[in-house]
Design the sequence.
């Protein structure tokens, strides 16, 4: 990677889902805008950062396009196990009472 890069390597981008790639792209474009603004006003300290951010943007676009073409695999979505609903004492007592009423009727 070049000196000013954020550390967005292609291997790391492969693990991101599509929504996260779009978010990273938005952040990179916003940073590029700010850097260009700083450059125009003479406040930019590191001109190499402009080049690094442009490369990061190109890298993200490449990963997105390769996924569209089927060249690069899209990561499988990670399933989050559903949490068991926590019931209050009153709700538990009501469920127990309903269960007891059902067993009496049967």
Sequence:
């Amino acid at each position: 990677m070049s000196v000013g890069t954020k550390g967005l390597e292609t291997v790391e981008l492969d693990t991101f889902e599509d929504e996260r790639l779009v978010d990273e792209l938005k952040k990179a474009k916003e940073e590029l805008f700010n850097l260009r603004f700083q450059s125009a006003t003479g406040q930019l300290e590191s001109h190499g950062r402009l080049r690094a951010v442009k490369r990061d943007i190109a890298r993200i676009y490449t990963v997105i396009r390769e996924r569209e073409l089927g060249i690069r695999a899209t990561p499988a979505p990670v399933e989050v196990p559903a949490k068991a609903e926590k019931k209050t004492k009153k709700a538990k007592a009501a469920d127990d009472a309903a269960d007891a009423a059902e067993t009496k009727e049967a």
